[in-house]
Design a protein that fits this description.
With 93 residues, the chain is mainly alpha-helical. Helix content is 76%, strand content 0%.
Length: 93
Amino acid sequence: MAVVDNSNSKLLFKVYVNIKWRSRGKYKPRRGPKKVKDGAKIIRETSPTARNAVRKFHESGAVSELAVAVQEAAVAAQDTGHSVLCRTSYRPS
């Protein structure tokens, strides 16, 4: 399994938590435009970080390995289900 540096995901999580924390409290219409601008600024600042995280995931092959592992698990579960059904008198209609 490939090893991926997750510092980018930690940064994105911190940004998400920061946005959620800031958005608590009463809404004041005067602050609406400023909050939108602040949100846009945060997105602009974190966009390259997210892009780099996606590139690293793609380059490491972690997503492909995960997809293969999920497919193998699904086939194993399907085979197990078939063998259980063949041993019992239950037949789905």
